Amino acid sequence: MNNPHSNQSDDSFLCAQEVTRVFRIGKRELPILKGVDLTLGRGEIAVLAGPSGAGKSTLLHILGGLDLPTSGRVFLDGEDVFRLGRRQRARLRSEKVGFVFQFFHLLPEFKAWENVIMPRRIRAAGSGLTGRLRDEAARLLDLVGMTGRMEHYPSQLSGGEQQRVAVARSLANDPGLILADEPTGNLDTRSGGELLDLFGKLHSQTGKTLLLVSHDKQVADWSPRVIHIRDGLIEETG
Ligand SMILES: Nc1ncnc2c1ncn2[C@@H]1O[C@H](COP(=O)(O)OP(=O)(O)OP(=O)(O)O)[C@@H](O)[C@H]1O
Ligand SMILES: [Mg+2]
To answer: Residue 32 domain-assigned?
Structure first.
């Protein structure tokens, strides 16, 4: 019998097998990922490091089901992500994955609390639950240390504060996995350190699986596991 989960250990939350990604520019083919194997246990923290252009963001997008691999498989909480159709994959992504980006990607015309519950509004569209969603946004903003900033627009917040709002938003659907692409890349050392403290606190309180892409030594030093990507392949150290 062909069991799609047969190669996956039970305690893994994320498992990539032989993932490749080739970009085509005109007639040229650019192989960026050349057979990435990577497993993250449920509740594990890891940093993905490597030189600029190594394919870190490309891999993160594939792991989160935002981009398609050229070949290979990704299992997310036991589901074979790229066997699913587009809609089912979008559903899986919104249930299981929260994303945090270097440039925050908050919507400027919405207040902090509205940004936080945006992923929920999309799922609960038309259900008239705004009061409950506002309470939920308040709880998440408390969790990230942003009590009292509900009504602020992104332009009225510091970079570190905007990133906290983005972290709160990543938690809106209570996903098991947070993927963060250079989350400290736009922050000074102090705000970056505070953001890491926040990820540490969230991890100990919620047991979520965290994968952070970063060049930042501060982030690598903080993480119990560092995964390097070089020449399209994974190298593990320490
Ligand atoms: N859509 C695309 N089309 C063609 N080439 C692409 C595309 N996306 C990425 N690339 C190429 O793939 C390589 C890896 O890009 P990627 O953004 O994953 O790097 P990265 O490791 O995240 O780098 P950085 O640390 O600078 O963010 C780069 O050489 C880039 O030019
Ligand atoms: Mg990148």
So the answer is: no
Q: Which residue's alpha carbon is at the smallest distance from atom 10 of ligand 1? A: 23
d(CA 216, ligand 2 centre) in Å: 12
Listed residue (207, 205, 212) closest to 226, CA to CA: 212
CATH assignment at residue 185: 3.40.50.300
The string of pLDDT tens digits covering residues 95-131 is 999 999 988 999 999 999 999 999 886 655 555 567 8
In sequence order, what E strands does 26-184 have?
A: 28-41, 45-49, 71-76, 79-80, 97-100, 177-181
Please report whether residue 65 resides in a domain.
no
Pocket test for ligand 1, best of 57, 211, 227, 234 (most atoms within 8 A of CB): 57
Residue 29 lies in a domain: no
Please check whether residue 23 lies inside any domain of the structure: no
180-210 burial, b at 16+ Cβ within 10 Å, e below that, comes to bbbbbbbbeeebbbbbbebbeebbeeeebbb
Q: What is the pLDDT of residue 207?
A: 93
Number of domains making up the chain: 1
- State which residues of the chain have pLDDT below 50: 1-7
The answer to whether the CB of 165 falls within 8 A of the CB of 146 is yes
| Domain assignment of residue 124, given as a range | 44-54+90-237
> What distance in angstroms lies between residue 190's CA and the mean position of ligand 2's atoms?
22
Using one digit for the tens of pLDDT, what is the confidence trace for 32-58? 999 999 999 999 999 999 999 999 999
- From the CA atom positions of the chain, what is the Rg in Å? 18
- Our measurement of the distance from residue 151's CA atom to the centroid of its chain's CA atoms, rounded to an integer in Å, reads 25
